[in-house]
Design goal:
The protein has 91 residues and is mostly helical. It contains 2 helices and no strands. Pfam families: B12D.
């Protein structure tokens, strides 16, 4: 086996075990989907700043209509009278 390339060994295994073809396809599909999702997060998310010189604080440019993530320890009740009244969480 010394002297054989990785591609030749891979091809030989595929010829011996054709049941590996769907598994390799699904693994490749999953890895490609994960890479595209990370690329989408890196390019479209307001939390990521690629240009620190021209845009040092990008979160200040968000308008009230922009969607962004925030963490609240207690959820807000939007239908309640008065702004910002917190809901009581009963467990």
């Amino acid at each position: 086996m010394a002297g054989t390339t990785l591609g030749a060994r891979f091809y030989r295994q595929i010829k011996r075990h054709p049941g590996l073809i769907p598994m390799i396809g699904f693994i490749g599909l999953g890895m490609g989907s994960a890479a595209l999702y990370l690329l989408r997060l890196a390019l479209r998310s307001p939390d990521v700043c690629w240009d620190r010189k021209n845009n040092p604080e990008p979160w200040n440019r968000l308008s009230p209509n922009d969607q962004y993530k925030s963490f609240l320890a207690t959820p807000l009740v939007y239908g309640a009278p008065g702004p910002g009244i917190r809901a009581t969480v009963e467990t």
